[in-house]
Amino acid sequence: MSQTIIKDRIPENELLMGGHLACPGCGGALAMRLVLKELGPKTIVVLPACCWSIIAGPYPQSSLKVPLYHTAFETGAAVASGIRAALDIQGQHDTNVIVWAGDGGTFDIGLQALSGAAERNEDFIYCCYDNEAYMNTGIQRSSATPWGAWTTTTPSKHPQATDKKDILAIMAAHRIPYAATASVSYPVDLVDKVKKAMSIRGTRFLHILAPCPPGWKFEDERAIDMGRMAVQSRVFPLVEVEHGTDWRFTMDPEHVPVQDYIRAQGRFRHLTDEQIGHISDAVDYRYEHLRDLAERSQAKV
Amino acid sequence: MSPSGSPSQLSIGVVGSGGDGVVLLGELLARSAVLAGLHCYMDKVFGPQIRGGESSVSLRISQSQVLRSADELDVLLVLQWSDLARFHDVLSIAPDALVICSSEDDGDPQACGLPIGHRGPLLSLPLKQLALDHGRSKQARNMVLLGAASGLLDWYPQQLRAILERRMQRYDERSRENNLAAVAAGRDAVASWQGSGIPALPTSNGNADLELASGNELLSRAAIASGCRFMAGYPITPASEILEYMTRRLPQLGGTCIQAEDEIAAACLTIGAALGGVRSMSATSGPGMTLKSESIALSGMAGLPMVVVDVQRCGPSTGIPTRTEQADLNLALYGAHGDSPRIVLAAAHQADCADLATQAFELAGEASAPVILLSEQQIAQGLATVPRDLVPEPNGSVPGWPDTAIGADRQVQLTGLEHDDSGRPLSDAASHQANSLLRNARVNRALSRVPALYEGAAEGELGLLCFGSSYSICREAIELAGSRGVTAGMMCIRMLSPLDQAELRDWLRGYRHVVIVEMNYSGQLHDYLRSRLQLPELTMSLRRSGGRPWRLAEVEDFLVRHGLLPAGPPELQP
User: Fold this and answer.
1) Which single residue of A47, A252, B179, B198 has CA 20 to 30 Å from B332?
2) Chain B hits for A70, Cβ within 8 Å
3) CATH 3.40.50.2300 assigned to B3-208
4) Is the ipTM above a cut-off of 0.90?
């Protein structure tokens, strides 16, 4: 994709300023920057405890140029529902309300509030930036941690023994109008999904993979590379689903072996080739399943 | 100064960014001093980020036991000046301190917190260049700085070499060589330095049986030694190290550690395990403690033993997660609905974490009630020297909680509803009254089982009363008072509920003035004691919010201001 097209398709305005407190190479910081570019300044961000509780920065160094509400860990979707109701009562229907939560605040402790809000079809965009563990408290596993990964609570002697929770399928099962996966390594696809989400009312869910150099153990400068390989290896396919039934791949780039993605990260260093084969089989299985869903959705149209 | 001419103690601060290896540098210095037979205390203070944020340690080595870091640093090692700026409230630098920093750093030392009148030696070295040239990576800057500092101070050379070798066993051969080359480069860079003002090191008095450990580690080890074989937790600073330790250790002993999906689940997993007859615990900090409140009340109502550790941090809400405070006392004492009696213990220092963890399991089992063990960031993450044999290794016997065990051969009915002694639900007022009395009586059986810590004179002018980590500052304050001719003593309450009022009344009678010392804004201990017993008229409250450990100067100022301590040292006798 040429430079010109990216420049034309990603808004130039910046709502995340320099001097934020993310680690070098943080996918979560880039994700926020891209999403806010599309949402624009008329946006309220609800932030349950996560890395971003820190990244935004203390006064007077706050790096975000939009209103930000730091809330308790388990309450992102509930607070956003309240804010939406208050704005609607006042006729401010055009102000975006987003929840910006990590994987812990979404897959684990925040799932109950998210499910409740999705069931009510609350009118907000819920963004989960997923770095696949509790990074801010020092790299403990979450239910978004992939099988086989090392964390401080899944040491390499007994690494993560269960598969990553399929949060997209969970959200699709709530029949919300729009849910999608996205990656900071495919910025145009990401921004297009934000744009599409903005054109829809009701609960919209974006699951953004956010590579984390200190947590995944790779060099800072390889964050984009890592996100790209996650998609190319089909570990993290880029899809969207409307009303829980209409599935579609939005990108299907050239395939690279799962091995390349896994071997590039220190958190998988202890895995044998055979174990990586197991990951590869699981990835293929899920990819086939998604392709079936997408083909069936296509046939309906 | 000790008679030999060497000082009795020395304090060193290290600051840099997270990922710079500040903690490693501090630990290598600390562990080699401990190996040389000295006592040691090391505070770790982090910025809130994992990496790229600021990070500091404050290390104090001494010939006798120390339980807090020093008021002022004698030596400051700086990887980056801008990181010092974030710790201006935590690290106070002596005017004649030895400072070693980087010549490649364009930060302004004075603007970042070096005292304006600093007159000690200041060495700046090309840390990054030396790291690249000799350690093959700029990451080795901490090793260059270690070499420079240990060279200048002549830091226990034999012990440092041993500690380095032990540490380097974790690395591959190349990293090992690079790191050792970086240390040597730092040492060489200062070898020809001719300046004066290098502080002397305390000489060892040969304590061979000491080890350096954090409160979280000691608490975890003691829990295991007390038969705990199940832990459930949820990541939260500054309690996560307990979960991480148990994750590694419990499976080796046939136990189980579960990282739950949230704090409520962690609490209820613990209750479930107790119901199965296994000694179990959960550990958290303030926000998690709030979420566990309902389960704590359930454990009390159902009559199940439950051990919950609350490692306090600055609150309310997310507060300052990486900084210390003593403000969850009210939550521990009262945090639940209904009349919900519980046992509340508070650890005074690192070794006390081990002692109280042991007692917590005994008392929970005996009372069939919740036990809340309060710790604090400062104790939990800070390192102190403790006797090597403080916590016994787990032996074969694993005591359970048999009275609670439910099983195929044993029908036990337990409920959160009001119930009779067979667990059958009841709903009349008279039974509710009778059972409320029973629940209180169960907890009250623990009365006086965990005695307070006493120091100094049992009678005198001044008595200091405290709980938790304020113990260490009170202990130094009464020594200071003694040195100025004021007879003083102290009491540190370790069991806050049930409260031994008789013991307190006895102690209070011994002093003309009493000051209650605690690190929270509202005076939670003061208010609690006042609600339970008649405090003497001359009782005062010394309190402030957390965020940093106490300094002796703060307590001294308070006592002098209130006429309880003469200002300055008494006149020297001819």
Assistant:
1) A47
2) 318
3) no
4) yes
- Do B213-444 and B453-572 share a fold? yes
Domain boundaries, chain B: 3-208, 213-444, 453-572
CB A99 within 8 A of CB A76: yes
Helix axes B127-135, B173-191, angle to 10 degrees: 140
pLDDT at B4: 46
**Residues of chain A with C-beta less than 8 angstroms from the C-beta of B240:** 137-138, 140, 152
HEC secondary structure over B313-367: CECCCCCECCCCCCCCHHHHHHCCCCCCCCEEEECCCHHHHHHHHHHHHHHHHHH
Tell me which chain B residues have a C-beta less than 8 angstroms from the C-beta of A22.
49, 52
> What proportion of chain A, given as a percentage, has pLDDT over 90?
89
Chain B contact set for A49 (CB, 8 A): 318
CB contact under 8 A, B259 and A141: yes
Mutate: best of B20, B51, B258, B290, partner A, most A CBs <10 A: B51
The tokens describing B21, both together, are 């290896």
HEC readout, B166-184:
HHHCCCCHHHHHHHHHHHH
CB A28 within 8 Å of CB A210 = yes
The vertex-A149 CA angle with B253 and A153, nearest 5°, equals 40
How far the first Cα of chain A sits from its last, in Å, is 29
Asked if B240's CB is within 8 angstroms of A21's CB, the reply is no
Candidates A109, A143, A212, A220, partner chain B, best to mutate (most B CBs within 10 A): A109
What is the number of CB-based contacts under 8 A between chain A and chain B? 75
The interaxial angle of helices B286-302 and B263-275, nearest 10 deg, is: 30
Contact call for residues B462 and B342 (beta carbons, < 8 A)? no
Tokens standing for residue A42: 């008329």
A-chain residues within 8 Å CB-CB of B250? none
Using beta carbons and an 8 Å cutoff, which residues of B are at the interface with A? 19, 48-53, 234-237, 240, 243-244, 247-248, 251, 257, 259, 261-263, 287, 291, 317-318
- In a 13 Å sphere around the CA of A270, the CA atoms on its Cβ side amount to 14
**Which ranges of chain B have pLDDT less than 70?**
1-5, 48-53, 407-408, 410, 569-574
Q: Which residues of B touch A69 (CB under 8 A)?
A: none
Assess A68–B contact: CB distance below 8 Å, yes or no.
no
Summarised one tens digit per residue, pLDDT across range A65-75 is 999 999 999 99
What are the extents of the domains in chain A?
3-300
- Identify any residues that bridge with B455 across adjacent strands, giving them in sequence order: B490
Chosen CATH of A3-300 out of 3.40.718.10, 3.40.50.920, 3.40.50.10680, 3.40.50.970 = 3.40.50.970
Instruction: Return the amino acid letter for B33.
Output: A
Which of the residues A21, A140, A150, A212 would you substitute to probe the B interface, choosing the one with the greatest number of B C-beta atoms within 10 Å? A140
3-state secondary structure of A100: strand
Pairing of strands A204-209, A125-130: parallel
Q: Which fold has domain B453-572?
A: Rossmann fold (3.40.50)
The answer to whether the Cβ–Cβ distance between B237 and A137 falls below 8 Å is yes
CB contact A217 to B (< 8 Å): no
Distance in Å, alpha carbon of B227 to nearest chain A alpha carbon: 21
pLDDT tens column, B313-363 = 999 999 999 999 999 999 999 999 999 999 999 999 999 999 999 999 999
